[in-house]
Amino acid sequence: MLFAEVVATSERVAGAAARRAKITELAALLTSLAPNEVEATVGFLTGRARQGRIGIGWATLGAAPAGVAGEPQLTVGDVDASLSRLCGLSGAGSRGARAAELASLFGRATAAEDDFLRRLLIGEIRQGALDGVMTDAVATAAAVPPGAVRRAVMLSGHLGRTAALALARGERGLAAVGLAVLRPLKPMLASTAVNVESAIAAGGLSSVEWKLDGARVQAHRQGKEVRLFTRSLRDVTQQLPAVVDLMRSLPVTAVVLDGELVGLREDKAPEVFQDTMSRLSLGDVHARFFDCLHLDGVDLVDLPLTDRMAALERAAGPWRVPAILTDDPAAGAAFLATALARGHEGVMVKTATSRYEAGRRGKAWRKVKPVRTLDLVVLGAEWGHGRRRGWLSNLHLGARDATGEFVMVGKTFKGLTDELLRWQTEVFQRLKRGEDGHVVFIRPEVVVEIAIDGVQRSTRYAGGVALRFARVRRYRDDKTPEEADTIDAVRAMLA
Length: 495
What we know:
The chain is of the alpha+beta class. The protein folds into three domains: 3-175, Orthogonal Bundle (DNA ligase i, domain 1), CATH 1.10.3260; 191-368, DNA ligase/mRNA capping enzyme (D-amino Acid Aminotransferase, Chain A, domain 1, 2-Layer Sandwich), CATH 3.30.470; 372-492, CATH 2.40.50.140. The chain is built from 17 helices and 19 strands. The strands form four sheets. Strands 11, 12, 13, 14, 15, 16 and 19 form a seven-stranded antiparallel beta sheet that branches. β14 (432-436) and β15 (439-442) form a beta hairpin. α8 packs across α9 (146-156), α8 crosses α10 (159-175) and α11 (196-203) packs across α15 (329-341). The longest helix is centred in the middle third of the chain and has 17 residues, at 159-175. It is globular.
Protein backbone atom coordinates (compact mmCIF):
# COMPACT_ATOMS: atom_id res chain seq x y z
CA MET A 1 0.00 0.00 0.00
CA LEU A 2 1.15 3.53 -0.71
CA PHE A 3 2.10 5.38 2.44
CA ALA A 4 0.02 8.30 1.15
CA GLU A 5 -3.13 6.26 1.82
CA VAL A 6 -2.14 5.92 5.49
CA VAL A 7 -1.52 9.67 5.70
CA ALA A 8 -4.86 10.44 4.05
CA THR A 9 -6.65 8.14 6.49
CA SER A 10 -4.93 9.89 9.38
CA GLU A 11 -6.20 13.23 8.09
CA ARG A 12 -9.76 11.94 7.79
CA VAL A 13 -9.62 10.44 11.28
CA ALA A 14 -8.35 13.75 12.66
CA GLY A 15 -11.27 15.53 11.01
CA ALA A 16 -13.90 13.12 12.31
CA ALA A 17 -15.60 14.24 15.51
CA ALA A 18 -17.43 11.00 16.31
CA ARG A 19 -15.63 7.95 17.67
CA ARG A 20 -17.64 5.67 15.37
CA ALA A 21 -16.54 7.65 12.33
CA LYS A 22 -12.90 7.29 13.35
CA ILE A 23 -13.34 3.55 13.81
CA THR A 24 -14.99 3.20 10.41
CA GLU A 25 -12.14 5.03 8.64
CA LEU A 26 -9.47 2.97 10.38
CA ALA A 27 -11.26 -0.33 9.81
CA ALA A 28 -11.59 0.40 6.08
CA LEU A 29 -7.84 0.98 5.84
CA LEU A 30 -6.98 -2.13 7.87
CA THR A 31 -9.00 -4.37 5.56
CA SER A 32 -7.07 -3.00 2.56
CA LEU A 33 -3.62 -3.81 3.91
CA ALA A 34 -1.44 -6.74 2.96
CA PRO A 35 -0.79 -9.04 5.96
CA ASN A 36 2.84 -7.89 6.24
CA GLU A 37 1.77 -4.23 6.40
CA VAL A 38 -0.65 -4.41 9.33
CA GLU A 39 1.71 -4.22 12.30
CA ALA A 40 3.66 -1.26 10.90
CA THR A 41 0.53 0.64 9.88
CA VAL A 42 -1.11 0.23 13.28
CA GLY A 43 2.07 1.67 14.77
CA PHE A 44 2.03 4.62 12.38
CA LEU A 45 -1.59 5.48 13.17
CA THR A 46 -1.28 5.14 16.94
CA GLY A 47 1.84 7.30 16.90
CA ARG A 48 4.31 4.60 17.93
CA ALA A 49 6.45 3.00 15.25
CA ARG A 50 6.75 -0.75 15.77
CA GLN A 51 10.53 -0.32 16.16
CA GLY A 52 10.06 1.71 19.34
CA ARG A 53 12.11 4.83 19.93
CA ILE A 54 13.84 5.82 16.70
CA GLY A 55 16.31 8.14 18.42
CA ILE A 56 15.96 11.15 16.12
CA GLY A 57 16.50 14.51 17.80
CA TRP A 58 15.08 17.88 16.86
CA ALA A 59 18.37 19.08 15.37
CA THR A 60 18.77 16.04 13.14
CA LEU A 61 15.16 16.19 12.02
CA GLY A 62 15.37 19.92 11.36
CA ALA A 63 18.37 19.40 9.09
CA ALA A 64 16.54 16.83 6.94
CA PRO A 65 15.39 18.18 3.55
CA ALA A 66 11.69 18.88 3.07
CA GLY A 67 9.66 16.38 1.10
CA VAL A 68 8.83 17.80 -2.33
CA ALA A 69 7.82 14.73 -4.35
CA GLY A 70 5.00 15.61 -6.72
CA GLU A 71 3.40 12.17 -6.72
CA PRO A 72 3.23 9.55 -3.93
CA GLN A 73 5.85 6.84 -4.32
CA LEU A 74 6.66 5.67 -0.80
CA THR A 75 5.02 2.44 0.33
CA VAL A 76 4.27 1.30 3.87
CA GLY A 77 7.12 -1.17 3.48
CA ASP A 78 9.53 1.55 2.37
CA VAL A 79 8.84 3.65 5.46
CA ASP A 80 8.95 0.67 7.81
CA ALA A 81 12.29 -0.50 6.36
CA SER A 82 13.75 3.00 6.64
CA LEU A 83 12.76 3.26 10.30
CA SER A 84 14.33 -0.14 10.96
CA ARG A 85 17.58 1.03 9.39
CA LEU A 86 17.52 4.20 11.48
CA CYS A 87 17.08 2.16 14.66
CA GLY A 88 20.06 0.01 13.75
CA LEU A 89 22.48 2.92 13.47
CA SER A 90 24.88 3.51 16.35
CA GLY A 91 28.51 4.18 17.06
CA ALA A 92 31.09 5.91 14.90
CA GLY A 93 29.70 7.37 11.71
CA SER A 94 26.10 6.87 12.78
CA ARG A 95 25.27 10.58 12.71
CA GLY A 96 26.16 10.89 9.04
CA ALA A 97 24.44 7.62 8.20
CA ARG A 98 21.31 8.76 10.01
CA ALA A 99 21.27 12.05 8.11
CA ALA A 100 21.70 10.21 4.81
CA GLU A 101 18.85 7.80 5.60
CA LEU A 102 16.53 10.67 6.53
CA ALA A 103 17.48 12.54 3.35
CA SER A 104 16.62 9.48 1.30
CA LEU A 105 13.30 9.00 3.08
CA PHE A 106 12.16 12.61 2.94
CA GLY A 107 13.46 13.01 -0.58
CA ARG A 108 10.80 10.54 -1.74
CA ALA A 109 8.00 12.03 0.37
CA THR A 110 5.22 14.38 -0.65
CA ALA A 111 4.55 17.45 1.49
CA ALA A 112 1.74 15.66 3.35
CA GLU A 113 3.89 12.58 3.94
CA ASP A 114 6.75 14.80 5.11
CA ASP A 115 4.51 16.41 7.72
CA PHE A 116 3.22 13.05 8.98
CA LEU A 117 6.69 11.50 9.17
CA ARG A 118 8.12 14.39 11.16
CA ARG A 119 5.25 14.22 13.64
CA LEU A 120 5.64 10.43 13.90
CA LEU A 121 9.35 10.71 14.64
CA ILE A 122 8.80 13.24 17.44
CA GLY A 123 5.71 11.51 18.84
CA GLU A 124 3.08 14.03 17.80
CA ILE A 125 0.54 11.97 15.87
CA ARG A 126 -2.65 13.31 17.43
CA GLN A 127 -5.61 12.33 15.31
CA GLY A 128 -7.59 10.50 17.99
CA ALA A 129 -6.51 6.98 17.03
CA LEU A 130 -5.09 5.91 20.35
CA ASP A 131 -5.14 2.31 21.48
CA GLY A 132 -8.81 2.22 22.50
CA VAL A 133 -10.08 3.52 19.14
CA MET A 134 -7.65 1.37 17.18
CA THR A 135 -8.61 -1.72 19.17
CA ASP A 136 -12.25 -1.23 18.22
CA ALA A 137 -11.23 -0.60 14.61
CA VAL A 138 -9.30 -3.89 14.55
CA ALA A 139 -12.37 -5.68 15.93
CA THR A 140 -14.56 -4.12 13.23
CA ALA A 141 -12.13 -4.93 10.43
CA ALA A 142 -11.68 -8.53 11.58
CA ALA A 143 -15.38 -8.98 12.48
CA VAL A 144 -14.55 -10.19 15.98
CA PRO A 145 -15.78 -9.05 19.43
CA PRO A 146 -13.84 -6.05 20.80
CA GLY A 147 -13.35 -7.95 24.05
CA ALA A 148 -11.46 -10.68 22.20
CA VAL A 149 -9.06 -8.10 20.77
CA ARG A 150 -8.60 -6.38 24.15
CA ARG A 151 -7.83 -9.67 25.86
CA ALA A 152 -5.25 -10.65 23.23
CA VAL A 153 -3.62 -7.21 23.42
CA MET A 154 -3.42 -7.53 27.20
CA LEU A 155 -1.78 -10.94 27.05
CA SER A 156 0.58 -10.18 24.18
CA GLY A 157 1.37 -6.62 25.22
CA HIS A 158 1.36 -5.55 21.56
CA LEU A 159 -1.50 -4.01 19.60
CA GLY A 160 0.14 -4.16 16.17
CA ARG A 161 0.88 -7.88 16.28
CA THR A 162 -2.57 -8.56 17.71
CA ALA A 163 -4.14 -6.63 14.82
CA ALA A 164 -2.22 -8.69 12.27
CA LEU A 165 -3.31 -11.89 14.02
CA ALA A 166 -6.97 -10.82 14.19
CA LEU A 167 -7.09 -9.97 10.49
CA ALA A 168 -5.32 -13.18 9.47
CA ARG A 169 -6.94 -15.74 11.80
CA GLY A 170 -9.98 -14.09 13.34
CA GLU A 171 -11.44 -14.92 16.72
CA ARG A 172 -9.92 -18.40 16.79
CA GLY A 173 -6.45 -16.95 16.40
CA LEU A 174 -7.06 -14.41 19.14
CA ALA A 175 -8.36 -17.09 21.49
CA ALA A 176 -5.06 -18.95 21.09
CA VAL A 177 -3.10 -16.03 22.55
CA GLY A 178 -2.09 -16.92 26.08
CA LEU A 179 -0.06 -15.50 28.86
CA ALA A 180 3.64 -16.17 28.36
CA VAL A 181 5.83 -16.06 31.44
CA LEU A 182 8.74 -13.61 30.93
CA ARG A 183 6.69 -11.63 28.36
CA PRO A 184 4.97 -8.55 29.84
CA LEU A 185 1.22 -8.10 29.65
CA LYS A 186 -0.71 -4.86 29.88
CA PRO A 187 -1.70 -3.97 33.46
CA MET A 188 -5.24 -3.64 34.75
CA LEU A 189 -6.19 -0.08 35.73
CA ALA A 190 -8.55 1.41 38.29
CA SER A 191 -11.23 4.05 38.18
CA THR A 192 -11.86 6.53 41.01
CA ALA A 193 -14.47 6.24 43.77
CA VAL A 194 -15.51 9.04 46.11
CA ASN A 195 -15.32 6.83 49.20
CA VAL A 196 -15.02 3.23 50.36
CA GLU A 197 -18.70 2.96 51.21
CA SER A 198 -19.85 3.75 47.67
CA ALA A 199 -17.23 1.46 46.14
CA ILE A 200 -18.30 -1.52 48.28
CA ALA A 201 -21.96 -0.74 47.69
CA ALA A 202 -21.33 -0.88 43.94
CA GLY A 203 -19.16 -4.00 43.94
CA GLY A 204 -20.45 -6.07 46.84
CA LEU A 205 -17.93 -8.46 48.38
CA SER A 206 -14.57 -6.81 47.74
CA SER A 207 -10.90 -6.97 48.49
CA VAL A 208 -9.96 -3.71 50.19
CA GLU A 209 -6.21 -3.19 49.91
CA TRP A 210 -3.75 -0.54 50.97
CA LYS A 211 -2.93 1.73 48.04
CA LEU A 212 0.83 2.12 48.02
CA ASP A 213 2.22 5.30 46.49
CA GLY A 214 4.98 3.76 44.44
CA ALA A 215 5.84 2.52 40.96
CA ARG A 216 3.93 -0.35 39.36
CA VAL A 217 5.94 -3.50 38.73
CA GLN A 218 5.14 -6.75 36.96
CA ALA A 219 7.42 -9.56 38.12
CA HIS A 220 7.94 -12.76 36.09
CA ARG A 221 9.88 -15.85 37.02
CA GLN A 222 10.48 -19.07 35.08
CA GLY A 223 12.84 -21.36 36.91
CA LYS A 224 15.67 -19.08 38.02
CA GLU A 225 15.15 -16.59 35.22
CA VAL A 226 13.46 -13.36 36.34
CA ARG A 227 12.15 -10.39 34.37
CA LEU A 228 10.77 -7.17 35.88
CA PHE A 229 8.64 -4.71 33.89
CA THR A 230 7.23 -1.24 34.53
CA ARG A 231 3.66 -0.06 33.93
CA SER A 232 4.71 0.83 30.36
CA LEU A 233 6.21 -2.69 29.89
CA ARG A 234 9.81 -1.46 29.98
CA ASP A 235 12.29 -4.08 31.20
CA VAL A 236 13.98 -2.88 34.42
CA THR A 237 15.39 -6.21 35.58
CA GLN A 238 19.00 -5.00 35.68
CA GLN A 239 18.07 -2.00 37.84
CA LEU A 240 16.50 -4.03 40.63
CA PRO A 241 18.82 -6.83 41.81
CA ALA A 242 17.18 -7.04 45.25
CA VAL A 243 13.77 -7.67 43.70
CA VAL A 244 15.31 -10.29 41.40
CA ASP A 245 16.72 -12.05 44.45
CA LEU A 246 13.33 -11.89 46.17
CA MET A 247 11.62 -13.46 43.14
CA ARG A 248 14.19 -16.27 43.04
CA SER A 249 13.56 -16.99 46.73
CA LEU A 250 9.84 -17.67 46.27
CA PRO A 251 8.69 -21.30 46.66
CA VAL A 252 7.50 -21.58 43.04
CA THR A 253 8.73 -22.74 39.66
CA ALA A 254 6.89 -20.21 37.50
CA VAL A 255 4.96 -17.11 38.54
CA VAL A 256 3.75 -13.72 37.31
CA LEU A 257 2.98 -11.15 40.01
CA ASP A 258 1.53 -7.65 39.82
CA GLY A 259 2.59 -5.20 42.46
CA GLU A 260 4.21 -1.98 43.54
CA LEU A 261 7.74 -0.80 44.22
CA VAL A 262 7.99 1.45 47.28
CA GLY A 263 10.71 3.19 49.20
CA LEU A 264 10.67 2.64 52.95
CA ARG A 265 12.22 4.79 55.64
CA GLU A 266 14.08 3.30 58.60
CA ASP A 267 10.86 3.16 60.61
CA LYS A 268 9.25 1.20 57.71
CA ALA A 269 6.95 4.10 56.85
CA PRO A 270 6.60 4.70 53.10
CA GLU A 271 8.60 7.35 51.34
CA VAL A 272 6.79 10.01 49.35
CA PHE A 273 6.46 9.24 45.65
CA GLN A 274 9.32 11.46 44.48
CA ASP A 275 11.71 9.83 46.95
CA THR A 276 10.55 6.38 45.88
CA MET A 277 11.31 7.27 42.27
CA SER A 278 14.77 8.49 43.32
CA ARG A 279 15.35 5.21 45.16
CA LEU A 280 14.11 3.31 42.09
CA SER A 281 16.95 4.70 39.99
CA LEU A 282 19.35 3.31 42.61
CA GLY A 283 17.54 -0.03 42.96
CA ASP A 284 16.81 0.76 46.62
CA VAL A 285 13.12 -0.17 46.70
CA HIS A 286 10.91 -2.89 48.15
CA ALA A 287 8.39 -4.96 46.22
CA ARG A 288 4.88 -5.61 47.51
CA PHE A 289 2.41 -7.65 45.47
CA PHE A 290 -1.37 -7.50 45.11
CA ASP A 291 -2.18 -9.97 42.31
CA CYS A 292 -1.03 -13.30 40.88
CA LEU A 293 -1.60 -13.83 37.17
CA HIS A 294 0.16 -17.17 36.69
CA LEU A 295 1.37 -19.86 39.07
CA ASP A 296 3.30 -23.00 38.18
CA GLY A 297 1.85 -23.61 34.74
CA VAL A 298 -1.67 -22.28 35.37
CA ASP A 299 -2.88 -18.96 33.92
CA LEU A 300 -5.11 -17.14 36.39
CA VAL A 301 -6.22 -13.97 34.56
CA ASP A 302 -9.67 -15.39 33.76
CA LEU A 303 -10.30 -16.61 37.31
CA PRO A 304 -12.06 -14.56 40.03
CA LEU A 305 -9.95 -12.25 42.17
CA THR A 306 -10.51 -14.47 45.20
CA ASP A 307 -8.79 -17.38 43.41
CA ARG A 308 -5.90 -15.12 42.43
CA MET A 309 -5.59 -13.90 46.02
CA ALA A 310 -5.28 -17.47 47.23
CA ALA A 311 -2.54 -18.11 44.64
CA LEU A 312 -0.77 -14.92 45.71
CA GLU A 313 -0.79 -16.05 49.32
CA ARG A 314 0.81 -19.37 48.33
CA ALA A 315 3.43 -17.75 46.11
CA ALA A 316 4.38 -14.58 47.99
CA GLY A 317 2.38 -14.36 51.21
CA PRO A 318 4.97 -12.42 53.27
CA TRP A 319 5.23 -9.78 50.53
CA ARG A 320 1.51 -9.22 49.95
CA VAL A 321 -0.04 -5.79 50.13
CA PRO A 322 -2.25 -5.83 53.27
CA ALA A 323 -5.91 -6.51 52.37
CA ILE A 324 -9.24 -7.61 53.81
CA LEU A 325 -12.14 -9.34 52.10
CA THR A 326 -15.40 -7.68 53.13
CA ASP A 327 -18.81 -6.48 52.07
CA ASP A 328 -19.13 -4.26 55.15
CA PRO A 329 -18.65 -0.55 54.32
CA ALA A 330 -17.76 0.22 57.94
CA ALA A 331 -14.99 -2.38 57.91
CA GLY A 332 -13.70 -0.95 54.64
CA ALA A 333 -13.70 2.59 56.05
CA ALA A 334 -11.81 1.42 59.14
CA PHE A 335 -9.24 -0.30 56.92
CA LEU A 336 -8.82 2.96 54.97
CA ALA A 337 -8.19 4.80 58.23
CA THR A 338 -5.48 2.27 59.11
CA ALA A 339 -3.83 2.69 55.71
CA LEU A 340 -3.78 6.45 56.08
CA ALA A 341 -2.40 6.21 59.61
CA ARG A 342 0.47 4.09 58.26
CA GLY A 343 1.31 6.79 55.72
CA HIS A 344 -0.26 5.30 52.60
CA GLU A 345 -2.38 7.29 50.17
CA GLY A 346 -5.63 5.35 50.39
CA VAL A 347 -7.08 1.97 49.44
CA MET A 348 -8.08 -0.02 46.39
CA VAL A 349 -11.52 -1.65 46.39
CA LYS A 350 -11.67 -4.63 44.04
CA THR A 351 -14.75 -6.71 43.30
CA ALA A 352 -14.13 -10.25 44.55
CA THR A 353 -15.50 -11.92 41.41
CA SER A 354 -13.60 -9.73 38.92
CA ARG A 355 -11.26 -11.10 36.28
CA TYR A 356 -7.97 -9.43 35.39
CA GLU A 357 -8.72 -7.19 32.42
CA ALA A 358 -6.57 -4.47 30.90
CA GLY A 359 -7.39 -1.80 28.36
CA ARG A 360 -9.93 0.38 30.14
CA ARG A 361 -10.67 1.78 33.56
CA GLY A 362 -13.67 -0.27 34.60
CA LYS A 363 -15.62 -0.48 37.83
CA ALA A 364 -14.08 -3.74 39.06
CA TRP A 365 -11.11 -1.86 40.57
CA ARG A 366 -11.67 1.48 42.27
CA LYS A 367 -9.14 3.67 44.03
CA VAL A 368 -10.16 5.68 47.09
CA LYS A 369 -8.05 8.57 48.35
CA PRO A 370 -9.00 11.09 51.03
CA VAL A 371 -8.04 13.92 48.68
CA ARG A 372 -9.61 13.79 45.26
CA THR A 373 -6.96 13.68 42.59
CA LEU A 374 -6.93 13.47 38.83
CA ASP A 375 -4.11 12.57 36.46
CA LEU A 376 -4.38 15.22 33.75
CA VAL A 377 -2.30 16.24 30.74
CA VAL A 378 -0.60 19.62 30.46
CA LEU A 379 -1.77 21.34 27.26
CA GLY A 380 0.04 24.63 27.81
CA ALA A 381 1.38 27.12 30.33
CA GLU A 382 1.45 30.88 30.77
CA TRP A 383 4.49 33.07 31.28
CA GLY A 384 4.45 34.28 34.86
CA HIS A 385 4.71 37.80 36.21
CA GLY A 386 6.00 39.31 39.42
CA ARG A 387 8.33 36.88 41.17
CA ARG A 388 7.48 34.24 38.56
CA ARG A 389 8.53 36.41 35.65
CA GLY A 390 10.64 34.40 33.21
CA TRP A 391 9.05 31.09 34.24
CA LEU A 392 6.20 29.16 32.65
CA SER A 393 3.67 29.00 35.45
CA ASN A 394 -0.11 28.75 35.09
CA LEU A 395 -0.83 25.26 33.70
CA HIS A 396 -3.60 24.52 31.20
CA LEU A 397 -4.98 21.09 32.12
CA GLY A 398 -6.81 18.59 29.92
CA ALA A 399 -8.65 15.28 30.32
CA ARG A 400 -8.95 12.59 27.63
CA ASP A 401 -12.18 12.33 25.68
CA ALA A 402 -13.61 9.24 23.99
CA THR A 403 -11.59 9.86 20.82
CA GLY A 404 -8.25 10.16 22.60
CA GLU A 405 -8.07 13.93 22.22
CA PHE A 406 -7.84 16.28 25.23
CA VAL A 407 -10.49 18.59 26.65
CA MET A 408 -9.44 21.52 28.81
CA VAL A 409 -10.89 21.44 32.32
CA GLY A 410 -9.01 24.14 34.17
CA LYS A 411 -5.84 26.01 35.04
CA THR A 412 -3.64 26.18 38.11
CA PHE A 413 -0.38 27.64 39.34
CA LYS A 414 -0.87 26.48 42.94
CA GLY A 415 1.52 23.93 44.37
CA LEU A 416 4.38 24.83 42.06
CA THR A 417 7.68 25.16 43.89
CA ASP A 418 10.59 27.14 42.45
CA GLU A 419 12.24 23.83 41.58
CA LEU A 420 9.18 22.69 39.63
CA LEU A 421 8.90 26.08 37.90
CA ARG A 422 12.50 25.84 36.69
CA TRP A 423 12.02 22.25 35.56
CA GLN A 424 8.77 22.78 33.69
CA THR A 425 9.99 25.97 31.99
CA GLU A 426 12.88 24.03 30.50
CA VAL A 427 10.82 20.97 29.55
CA PHE A 428 7.82 22.86 28.18
CA GLN A 429 9.96 24.93 25.85
CA ARG A 430 11.30 21.72 24.35
CA LEU A 431 7.71 20.50 23.86
CA LYS A 432 6.45 23.80 22.43
CA ARG A 433 4.11 23.50 19.47
CA GLY A 434 2.80 27.06 19.34
CA GLU A 435 2.44 30.33 21.18
CA ASP A 436 -0.30 32.92 21.53
CA GLY A 437 0.68 36.01 23.48
CA HIS A 438 1.72 34.89 26.95
CA VAL A 439 0.50 31.30 26.47
CA VAL A 440 2.85 28.55 25.29
CA PHE A 441 1.05 25.49 23.90
CA ILE A 442 2.90 22.21 24.23
CA ARG A 443 2.60 18.71 22.89
CA PRO A 444 0.29 16.69 25.21
CA GLU A 445 2.94 14.41 26.66
CA VAL A 446 3.29 15.45 30.31
CA VAL A 447 0.99 13.93 32.94
CA VAL A 448 0.49 15.77 36.22
CA GLU A 449 -1.39 14.69 39.33
CA ILE A 450 -3.80 17.41 40.41
CA ALA A 451 -5.54 17.58 43.78
CA ILE A 452 -8.97 19.20 43.76
CA ASP A 453 -11.79 20.02 46.15
CA GLY A 454 -14.28 18.93 43.51
CA VAL A 455 -15.63 19.97 40.14
CA GLN A 456 -18.38 22.31 39.04
CA ARG A 457 -20.45 22.78 35.93
CA SER A 458 -18.94 25.35 33.61
CA THR A 459 -19.70 26.93 30.26
CA ARG A 460 -16.14 28.22 30.03
CA TYR A 461 -14.68 24.90 28.92
CA ALA A 462 -15.87 22.63 26.12
CA GLY A 463 -16.17 19.66 28.47
CA GLY A 464 -18.81 21.43 30.55
CA VAL A 465 -16.89 21.04 33.82
CA ALA A 466 -14.18 22.95 35.67
CA LEU A 467 -11.88 22.01 38.54
CA ARG A 468 -12.37 23.58 41.98
CA PHE A 469 -9.25 24.69 43.86
CA ALA A 470 -6.86 22.69 41.69
CA ARG A 471 -3.28 22.36 42.88
CA VAL A 472 -0.27 20.43 41.64
CA ARG A 473 0.74 17.41 43.67
CA ARG A 474 3.43 15.95 41.41
CA TYR A 475 4.38 15.18 37.85
CA ARG A 476 3.75 11.56 36.84
CA ASP A 477 6.65 10.59 34.60
CA ASP A 478 5.62 6.97 35.17
CA LYS A 479 2.35 7.52 33.26
CA THR A 480 1.61 8.14 29.60
CA PRO A 481 -1.06 10.55 28.30
CA GLU A 482 -3.15 7.50 27.37
CA GLU A 483 -3.34 6.66 31.08
CA ALA A 484 -4.61 10.10 32.09
CA ASP A 485 -8.12 10.43 33.50
CA THR A 486 -11.00 10.86 31.09
CA ILE A 487 -13.46 13.72 30.79
CA ASP A 488 -16.16 11.22 31.81
CA ALA A 489 -14.28 10.57 35.06
CA VAL A 490 -14.15 14.31 35.71
CA ARG A 491 -17.86 14.72 34.97
CA ALA A 492 -18.68 11.82 37.30
CA MET A 493 -17.38 13.92 40.18
CA LEU A 494 -20.34 16.28 39.73
CA ALA A 495 -22.54 13.69 41.46
